[in-house]
Amino acid sequence: MSEYLQIVTTTARPEDAQRIARALVESRLAACVQVLGPITSTYHWQGRIETAEEWQCWAKTRRELYERAAGEIRRLHPYETPEILALPVLFGDEKYLRWLDEELKK
Q1: How many domains does the chain fold into?
Q2: What is the pLDDT of residues 3-42, one digit of tens each?
């Protein structure tokens, strides 16, 4: 099992995505968070099919920080049911992963 993760979440507004990104990095729950967007999401919600413009956050972190990072996302996220998915990093540049480790330990 990988010790590194990328946690993904989406928000309706870029300000919300930036607030989540900054909080995760400031609290050392992620070494880096990339904000991408706008993207278009189509999904079922409350019995209807919705389409919305969203902003996506990709947080680089370690497995042992997942629960705390997910909790922080939930605390800051305006959605009733936010997307919070963790994807394992199967391979990575050794120097980059060392940097990630160093930033998360400070």
Answers
A1: 1
A2: 999 999 999 999 999 999 999 999 999 999 999 999 999 9
